[in-house]
Every structure is written in structure tokens, then in C-alpha cells.
Amino acid sequence: MQSFDEITDESLVTKILSGKKELFYYLIKRYETKLRRYILRITNRKNEVDDLLQNVFIKTYKNLPTFNKELNFSSWIYRIAHNESINLIGSSFIQKFVSLPDWFDVGSRDEVEEKIDDEQMKKKLKNCIEKLDIKYKEPLVLFYYEEKTYEEISDILRIPVRNVGVLIHRGRLRIKKICYEKNNR
């Protein structure tokens, strides 16, 4: 018999919808850590992450019947987390910029990771991304931290794939510009 860890998300959804509701536990187990990290990076509200995460799983469970099994479940649940995070941030989100080093304009995720092995640089990068405008912050977090593809990011944010690359590129440029301005004050 196949272990539940080996069953695809989409197969689990099918089983849950056929009456095996207890299997929802395995979806929670798969996504709890990833979504907690994503929500925290987007909202920067440590005290509210667990409540928001709980809301994400409640909405996921309630909306399972509407999930299109032809699509990627991962993108669908991240979209729910995205919507909940944006609702939390609401109109009170204050747009600020801080600096990052010039090396952030390198292209690939692996190149960036190699250059941010230093914990201090990781912290500086995290702090800077937290201050970015949400439209740049989300694609950067999904790409660099959640390791999502452009296609997955497109599904999650409901924007064309070509716009994902543009937003990531512009986000890196904004971070680089901010870094330059802060270092020259």
C-alpha cells in the first residue's frame, strides 16, 4: 500500500472529497511550515501568523469542492494564503524601502543563495524585502524563498507569466537603487 507521503496533493483532495476527511491532516502537514514562512515574509506580523494560517486551512477545506483537479494544488493553496495575507495587510500597508547590496541583481536563485550564505546578509536581505511594495515583494518571496517557478507564481498571483519576470526584475532594481541611496547618505 502506498504511503500518504507518496500520494499527490490532487489525489489526496480526491480522496478527501470522496469522504475520507481525516486525510486533510496530510495536506496540513505538507504545507504548514511552507505557508507559515510565506505568510510571515509577506505580512511581517509574527503575532498573527498562526491565526492567519488557521484561516488559510479552514478556507482551503471549505473550498476543496471548488478546486479544479486539473490544476496544481500547491498554487491554489498559496493563492488562498496570498489572499488572506493581503486582507490582513489591507490598506494600512506602509510602503518603505531599505537597502541591499549591489549583488542582488544577479539572475538565478542559486547565485543569490551562494552570495547570501552570511547570516548578516540574509537578515539584511529579509529586512529589505519586507519593506518593498507588495507587488514586488510577493514575486521575490515566492521565487527566492519558496522556490516557485514563474508559472506557479503566475497561478498564485493571477498575473501573466511574462509579468512575473518583469516584477522580479524591477523588484531587484528597486532594492539595488535603495541600497545605493542609503549607502550614499
Walk me through the structure:
The protein is mainly alpha-helical. The chain folds into 2 domains: 4-91, Rna Polymerase Sigma Factor, Chain: A; 102-183, Arc Repressor Mutant, subunit A, CATH 1.10.10. It contains 9 helices and no strands.
Task: Summarize the helices and strands and which ones pair or pack.
Layout lengths: L8 H9 L6 H20 L5 H15 L9 H17 L19 H7 L3 H13 L2 H12 L4 H8 L3 H23 L2
Helix pairs in contact: 2-3, 2-4, 3-4, 4-8, 7-9, 8-9
Keywords: DNA-binding, Sigma factor, Transcription, Transcription regulation
Pfam families: Sigma70_r2, Sigma70_r4_2
Protein name: RNA polymerase sigma factor
List keywords for this structure.
185 residues, mainly alpha, Arc Repressor Mutant, subunit A, 9 helices
For the record, the CATH class of the largest domain is Mainly Alpha
Give the tally of structural domains: 2
CATH names the topology of the largest domain as Rna Polymerase Sigma Factor, Chain: A
pLDDT averaged over residues: 79
Strand tally is 0
- What is the rounded Rg? 18 Å
The separation of the N and C termini measures 64 Å
Shape: globular
**Hey, roughly how much beta strand do the residues contain?**
under 5%
The major sheet is characterized as: none
Pfam families: Sigma70_r2 (PF04542), Sigma70_r4_2 (PF08281)
GO molecular function, one term: DNA binding
Family: Belongs to the sigma-70 factor family. ECF subfamily.
Organism: Candidatus Roizmanbacteria bacterium CG2_30_33_16
